Amino acid sequence: MTSPMIGAAVKRREDFRFLKGIGRYTDDMSLPGQTCCYIVRSPVAHATIKSIDTAAAAASPGVVAVLTSKDFEGVGGLPCGWLVTSRDGSPMAEPKHPILAEGKVRHVGDPIVAVIAETLNAAKDAAELVVVEFAELPAVVDMRKALAGGEKVHEQPSGNLCFDWELGDKAAVDAAFAKAHHVTKIDLVNNRLVANAMEPRAAIGSFDPATEDYTLVTTSQNPHVIRLLMGAFVLSIPEHKLRVYAPDVGGGFGSKIYHYAEEALVTFASKKIGRPIKWVAERTESFISDAHGRDHVSHAEMAFDRDGQALALRVDTLANMGAYLSTFAPCIPTWLHGTLLAGQYTTPAIYCNVKAVFTNTVPVDAYRGAGRPEATFLLERLMTKAAMEMGLDQTEIRRRNFIQPSQFPYQTPVAVVYDTGNYEASLDKAMSLADYKGFEARRAEAKARGKLRGIGVASYIEACGIAPSSLVGALGARAGLYEAATVRVNPTGSVSVLTGSHSHGQGHDTTFAQVVADKLGIPMEQVEIVHGDTAKVPFGMGTYGSRSIAVGGTAIVNALDKVIAKGRKIAAHLLEAAEADIVFEGGAYQVKGTDKQKTFGEIALTAYVPHKYPIEEIEPGLEETAFYDPKNFTFPAGTYICEVEIDPRTGETTIVSFSAADDFGNVINPMIVEGQVHGGLAQGIGQALLEQCVYDDEGQLITGSYMDYCMPRADDVPFFKVATTSTPCTHNPLGVKGCGEAGAIGAPPAVINAICDALKDRGVLHIDMPATPERIWRAVGGAAGRAAAE
Amino acid sequence: MYGFSYQRPRSIADAVAALASEEARPLAGGQTLIPTLKQRLARHETLVDLSGLAELKGVHTDGKAVGIGAMTPHAAVATSAEVRAAIPALAALAEAIGDPQVRNAGTIGGSLANNDPAADYPAAVLALGATIVTNKRNIAADDYFTGLFSTALEPGELITAVGFPVPRRAGYAKMAQRASRYALVGVFVAETTAGVRVAVTGAGGSGVYRSKELEAALASNFAAAALSGVTVPAGDLLSDLHASAEYRAALIPVIAERALVAAG
């Protein structure tokens, strides 16, 4: 008998190897005969390639091969996994995304030539001898200018427009605005970010001429998706001849979902040269080749009645796609953004228009939160701005608009149905953590010290557990979004769980093992979680969108249920009882009302040594697989309250307190969940105050290293006060919702609302992210502000 | 990184001899040089590692001045009892450079030879009127800093030590550039036997400089209150992604006030 494992704060089993530095990442692996690849990338944002001379590079010592697009004839472009349809019914523009540049470069970092050599240094030496002659073209950087005509990133009829999408009832929204008592308007930028996973991307391609099998080791969040996309659409390799393996992966945050050129390049070229090829990104290379995140420019308006009840919301967004469509780029500003605009509120009419734009910048795709942070930032800024304009407290305007617990399931006007929630409960919890009532006294005390103190509230919702396949298929997804699991009970009772989810920091080795140990009543030590290898695990869709426990975890539970059910048949046979009379509890099958029982281990052994066994009824062995397709999204929600103090003379902002109350439904491991919240909050605070990806007018990335791109550090964030409330998810057996992205979604508006609250007496009602000291200093009047402060 | 040959001499004379070639480059703490090499932004035939020169390490004081060997790492300055007692502002400055790895590897001589316009040490050297001691001569701080990444050092000349006169009072404060954590604006204020000296780093278009406006304001009253209403011109200041010249100009008096508070 073991104590319940679900809900226990078990220490992360995987941390032993990570903390000791004995994890096994892609770059830790080397194959016999391996070569090194270095990629010559475009130094300019937009140009036609007049010529490429690789002769000197090819003759350089140690060089094995120098490849250009000519060597990839017959190879497909990188595919896009989601088709968005414009409001006029036309499909999105989907220009080719070649492995290596074909006649034109479209962003700084666009790969042009691959140099493969005996050593990395030899490859770099040779790369310096490659001569590419460019005819530079004007760079398309600003989205508004990109849509106004002029230079085109791709030669296509729609110019730089990728799609023009809408959601919601425009007529109903217009009618609601016509009778509004108050309209709050806002223009805002959701700043472009670089994911900056600790481990840069890497790939090793190899080909076995004996079996004709290809193997790709890669830094991926979803190896089966890579196998499908690369095998079927790029290289035409059937699945059974292509193994994709993502070993330990050091963080993804979305940036390792996508199929990247380097993966196809090393896989394809490994056959061509007859040797394995390793490519590892350097940090600067990551800045110009990993998909970026966010980058929206929006105008939004919200209509209210006299009592602060929201009547309608109207949103116009420009979403930057970058130079090419990354794997899931089109769905981020549309189906993961527009559908979240109801937030936690009963706003009856919502209309959203999104124009996606090509520019000469790195492709943009999902980054922690993916669309939902953009929606939440917009909506929660509107709510706080409206409260300020209407003279309401930030919490009061939210309370007046919350969907009530009695209203679930709740159909929003933007397509999704929330299954459950209790928004006042998390608001109350956050207010209590933050000592909201005591704030005005703290504000006065700070004022006496010459400091401006502000408090900001943000009540977020997100759609996680992505997603019912039939639903996303109707919305344009070119894949299903189920998850798979195999539970393999070994003869002596230990259990191997093969999951399609992928852990790259989330702690699945621990969380999933807790679920299995709890369900089977066996010690965690007897449970192994296997993931990341298409040669081992069933076809799964991977980890992103806070889906692993809700979808991957449910697949495991369903497979466990099948195992337990089969075990019951075996137990009934051994115990000579009716199957209906057998209960499974605490790791043993027992005849109800008696002390007759068989342990799970005894049943497992019997399944594999079936001497006394119902062999006529069931097969030997104890291994079951389940594919789980979710019935709905899950809807984690919560309220965050941030308190800041600003020095008006310098614009420096200190987060003095940050309180987070999240409803993740049931929680498997509260310590891991708390860690996920901490990490998300740090990234959200990073977006709000520090991080900013800046291109100049020529399309040069001027924040291309940590000297200029500011990642949050430990001393940039306060000690977080976190708590959870719970309304269990109604449509999965664990009642779980997912927790990975919440912090990054809820934190930015909480921080900016706090800053605006601090500055409202100075007439500042909005400030863009990142709210740098200089931005704040300018907002409070610049040099004149100092004089006023003194 | 391009290939290079590596030498680790045991005496200053050997180091100077090894550096006679134009293709040779001294390696002190390597906090700028090594990343530059790794990115192939620089190429040197020979690196002459100065870490074997024991005579360049350490702190000694006679009550009137503090001498710090050129190869003394920031962490050693920060934790030196002599420095803390004689010039606490200098120890505090060293303690706030970079992160622990940088402080354990980076050296005062390396920082001063590099003269990064946003480095911390140049502000202390200039404000305290320190003397740069080389294998050839003594250079007064006022003559040493000649522009961005540029100094009065001649080819073949190595910094061996820095001599800091002990001030009556001194203080340093900075606002860090948030990504790199170099000084966006750093101000070192010192009340010395030669009068009040104020040096500003991170902001000047030609690197570290003395602020006439702040020195004038503090000459008769070395206190934060003396800076009320004082402004400095933005004209010659740096403007970049992280701060405009106008913003830097506004920060300088405020950061100077903080330095004065730190000076006590």
Biggest interface: A-B, 27 and 21 residues
What helical percentage do the residues of chain B reach? 25-40%
The parts of chain A where pLDDT drops under 50 for at least 5 residues are none
Biggest sheet features of chain A: 7 strands, mixed
Topology as H/E string of chain B?
EHEHEEEHHHHHHEEHEEEEEEEHH
Instruction: Please tally the β strands of chain A and state the result.
Output: 30
Strands in their spatial order, largest beta sheet of chain A:
3-5-1-13-10-11-12
The largest pleated sheet of chain B is described as: 5 strands, antiparallel
The helix-and-strand class of chain B reads alpha+beta
Bulk shape of chain A: globular
For this entry, what is the oligomeric state of its chains? heterodimer
Beta-strand percent range of chain A:
15-25%
Short recap of the structure:
With 790 residues, chain A is of the alpha+beta class. Chain A is built from 20 helices and 30 strands.
